[in-house]
Write a structure and sequence with these properties.
With 266 residues, the chain is an alpha/beta fold. It has one domain: 3-Layer(aba) Sandwich (Dihydrofolate Reductase, subunit A). It is 21% helix and 23% strand. It is built from seven helices and ten strands. It has a ten-stranded mixed β-sheet, with helices on both faces. The two termini are 25 Å apart. Bound molecules: NADP nicotinamide-adenine-dinucleotide phosphate (NAP). The site of NADP nicotinamide-adenine-dinucleotide phosphate has 33 residues, from strand 2, strand 3, helix 3 and helix 7.
Length: 266
């Protein structure tokens, strides 16, 4: 998803409910997307956008081509609701991730919590924008997950400025991420992808819900899906192999021709 920070000065885009209650015309996303209460473990929500023909990356090389005002509204609320935004380093680079800026409209949503969610980046190379590491507030430090053979000098820099978790394996597994988030009490997890990282959560069967925006565009061939896998990753079983995980549709909303579905594990 695009890393748009602007809160936007004009009236918020209206969302109407198609399912389960087609009568509702001004849905409050804060309520429609509320996390389960009384969580005692990290709950992993993914938020992704796709074209009608299933593409996840537009000609710009970003998901921006698929974005819209209502999509940005939903994305903003999902960020306001979560404790931590987990992304693959490639998404952080392509979408220009920076520490999340506080928004006035989040005041109520985030009562008793830091003003912004933390960003957590997963990376082997540690090629992460310095500002994302150095400019986060003390109560929402950027978290970085990496492996032991990442570049040592870069690792030292990251350790000075961010909350660094080094995994003693070739690959950071989704389980490593969730264990570290759990230790920090970060239970409301939002992953914004990208497709490679999301595929690892799906393969590990650790996704609790998928919030998928279907944007009224066609992208044609050449655009990856919202899940992508390269060659098999040593130590990461299942990525690249099709599997069936049943889901249940919790709601379907519509605004300006975009469809906003929320699927939970069946
Ligand atoms: N449609 C949407 O909703 C959506 C959402 C997000 C992103 N996107 C788009 O998707 C593209 C990027 O997605 P992507 O799938 O190529 O990449 P990605 O999943 O965002 O990131 C992949 C990178 O994450 C790190 N990584 C992933 N798994 C790892 C593991 N197990 N251990 C250690 N590091 C790991 C590596 O970083 P290093 O390279 O640093 O080692 C890897 O190159 C961009 O074009 C972006 O705009 C679309």
């Amino acid at each position: 998803m695009s890393n748009t920070h602007a809160a936007g000065g004009s009236a918020p885009a209206r969302l109407r409910e198609l399912l389960p209650d087609p009568g509702r015309t001004d849905v409050r996303p804060e309520e429609a997307y509320a996390y389960p209460t009384d969580l005692d473990r990290p709950w992993v929500r993914a938020n992704m956008v796709a074209s009608v023909d299933g593409g996840a990356v537009g000609p710009s090389g970003r998901s921006l081509d698929l974005s819209s005002k209502p999509d940005r509204r939903v994305m903003g609320v999902l960020r306001g609701l979560c404790d931590v935004v987990v992304v693959g380093a490639s998404t952080a680079r392509h979408e220009g991730y920076k520490p999340v800026r506080p928004r006035e409209v989040w005041a109520k949503l985030r009562e008793g919590r830091p003003a912004t969610p933390r960003i957590a980046v997963v990376s082997r190379t540690l090629e992460i924008d310095d500002e994302l590491l150095t400019a986060a507030p003390d109560d929402a430090r950027t978290l970085v997950f990496t492996v032991e053979n990442s570049p040592a000098d870069r690792r030292a820099f990251v350790a000075r400025h961010a909350d660094l978790v080094v995994v003693d394996e070739y690959s950071v597994r989704p389980r490593h991420i969730l264990d570290a988030l759990s230790e920090r009490g970060l239970y409301r997890v939002l992953t914004e992808g990208g497709p490679h990282l999301l595929a690892e959560f799906v393969a590990a069967d650790l996704l609790d819900e998928l919030c998928l925006t279907v944007s009224p565009h066609l992208l044609g061939v050449g655009s990856p899906r919202i899940v992508a896998g390269g060659p098999p990753v040593p130590g990461v079983p299942g990525v690249g192999t099709a599997q069936t995980t049943p889901l249940r549709l919790a709601h379907l909303l519509e605004a300006e021709g975009s469809l906003f579905s929320r699927y939970l594990r069946a």
